[in-house]
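Lecture notes, unit on binding sites. The following record was shown on slide 14. It pairs a sequence with flavin-adenine dinucleotide.
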Amino acid sequence: MMSKTPVSWDQEADVIVIGYGFAGATAAITAHDAGAKVILLEKAPEAHKGGNSRVSANLVFWPDDIDKAKLYFEALAGPFMDDISPEMVQVWASEMHANRAWLEGLGMTPAEIPYIEFPEAAGSDCVHVLLNGEGPMGGERLWHVIEAAVAARSIDIGYETPAIRLVKEGKTIAGVIAESGGRQIAIKANRAVILTCGGFENNQKMIRNYVDGLADAYPVGTPYNTGDGIRMGIEVGAELWHMNNVSGPLLSFKAPDIPVAQWLNLPHGKSFLFVAKDGTRFTMEGDPCFTGDLHGKVKRHGTWGQQVLPVPIHMIFDETYRKSGHIGRATADWDASHGKLYDWSDDNLREVEKGWIKTSDTIGGLAKLIDIDPAALEASVAQFDRFAEAGHDGAWERSADHMAPLATPPFYAMELTPAFVNTQGGPRRNQNAEVIGVDGDPIPRLYSAGELGSIYSFLYQGGGNIGECFAFGRIAGRNAAHETSSLRAAPTLSLVAS
Ligand SMILES: Cc1cc2nc3c(=O)[nH]c(=O)nc-3n(C[C@H](O)[C@H](O)[C@H](O)COP(=O)(O)OP(=O)(O)OC[C@H]3O[C@@H](n4cnc5c(N)ncnc54)[C@H](O)[C@@H]3O)c2cc1C
């Protein structure tokens, strides 16, 4: 409910940045280097800092040609291009191009992996995907570069200090109300506030509202991204965009009491399939889940569209598969930064004992345990076995090299859960990284960057989110720092909501 509450300011800064991932770090570094006093507010405790950025694969899409980058962007946006201005695309392309030099200046040593997701699209030969140094993806190697750059500057960071509201004076954003140590604090922004607090991967209500066909889905990254920037943006009149564009859903396992979903570790065995509630297969099971799925988009009948999952979904396998290696990946990406959340057993027996994996000596018995018609499941498994023996998947064209009959009892069933790598939606921003109101005008002194209100509206090139964090983080930080210093002297003000 909207109400006016008089408060006095507890702290002040020139620029307040909300959320410490790549976007927030970049905005904070840039605003600081432009002469602003910066406060960075982070909801997570220090041990869990870094958001999705830290636990990501740390890949950056770097276009080597600005004009080709624009073509590639427009080809990927396709029919969802209409609300993205040419100025915005121009700025995106040129700042994405500028990322490499900026990152090298901070100490990155770019190495490349071949990863053009849509080679058939116009301009695709501009795509380079960079990581920091040679080696496997992830490992926080780029995060460490950015984290060190933040630490080298006098940027105040408030951990466990979630922003809960933006403060408005008239139309202008004047500060932030945050929670710290069990109480609310009011922080004055003399120049501007920058929202960089990520998406809504861990907000079930927003998922139901904004993503078609999913009742429940979970993050494979940080659990702290709960759509706070969307709620705060709505409260001050922001227009939303790209809310239904998500990287996912992919299929994962969500254990009770563990806040994030676990990647599946599928490639080690062959005798498994996925079935829907009616007992039928619905996809070419692959690694990590479906072959041909590019960040949640699939080509059907010649057209790219959103991956749709017929939940509830179960993975069915036999004793040979059970023994062939751990199915859950123990949230590997979280291990280094957040402590081991769960240690998945190598033979999957601990998870059978926990009841996460159901077992029966017969396929029909297994079907009853998971509330599927036994005859339907028996028919699907029998058909899968025939395809595996024949060396050809007549239903979904899964490679026969990755199929084997479910020949050895007992049999197992594990329920799979839709999960997101990240969401793209949030308050709309323009080429200046200003947040745009429902009236079409920028909301004065409010900026944003990162996956919160990302530019990506449809198909997505891997590395694009992190590239955009740096691109628009710099724009937001620069423009926020260059706002004129507030002349307000009064110690009281109005909150937009309480
Ligand atoms: C496993 C995984 C792999 C990925 N790999 C890649 C990749 O290789 N390349 C790529 O481009 N993209 C990748 N992505 C996506 C990419 O990592 C993210 O989209 C991007 O890092 C988002 O950065 P951000 O700074 O916008 O948000 P985040 O890095 O998520 O940071 C947001 C921060 O805001 C904080 N926060 C939330 N609410 C509040 C609040 N109310 N107050 C204060 N703080 C708040 C959160 O705790 C978090 O620390 C991957 C994502 C995942 C999960």
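Take-home: Residues 49 and 465 are 18 Å apart (CA to CA).
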